[in-house]
Amino acid sequence: MNLPNRITLARICLIPFLMVFLLVDFPFYPEPLQLGSLALPYNQLIAAFIFIVAASTDGIDGYLARKNNMVTNLGKLLDPLADKLLVTAVLISLVQMGKLDSWIAVVIISREFAVTGLRQIALLDGSVVAASAWGKLKTVVQIVAIVLLLLNNFPFSYTGIHVDVIAVWAAALITIWSGVDYFIKNKNLLHLSKV
Predict the structure, then answer these.
(1) Closest by alpha carbon to 178, among 145, 132, 144?
(2) 3-state secondary structure of 153
(3) What parts of the chain have a pLDDT lower than 50?
(4) Long-range own/partner contacts, residues 188-194 (CB < 8 A, 24 or more apart)
């Protein structure tokens, strides 16, 4: 249990706290923070902070593991699992809150399952499906979209431009394309046995 793996586990442990702030209706929440015409509930503000901290640990644990030669099988299992749990938990919470259409959450989560399945096939074949540039861009855009939804489109709400909606659509499209890209580049792994 080295430092990178502890950081990854910390990311997983933050998920329940994130969901509590998003989904539990505490009677003692103060009035929303008023930023001019924008009302920002404190629970969403705290959840956004937790999400940003959790998402930022993704790059940190991987960097430390590679730099210090601390890559382990446990880390290879936990790191992608932590990412998927974090994004899935927030997407489902946003659907529950009425901030995200359920079909977008289904598309994003389905892509994650599909690519995870492809990676499992690769492992059985003795190869590795490396993260692609599209996959990395997908992660960044998803994080941006989620943060904007949690912050009610702050600071762009003052401009009248729905950057949160644009980011959600961009996340959905890039998520779909990155999934297709993984399958195109690794189609050799999908051997169809003859009956």
Answers:
(1) 132
(2) coil
(3) 193-195
(4) 189/118, 189/121, 189/122, 189/125, 189/127, 189/129, 190/121
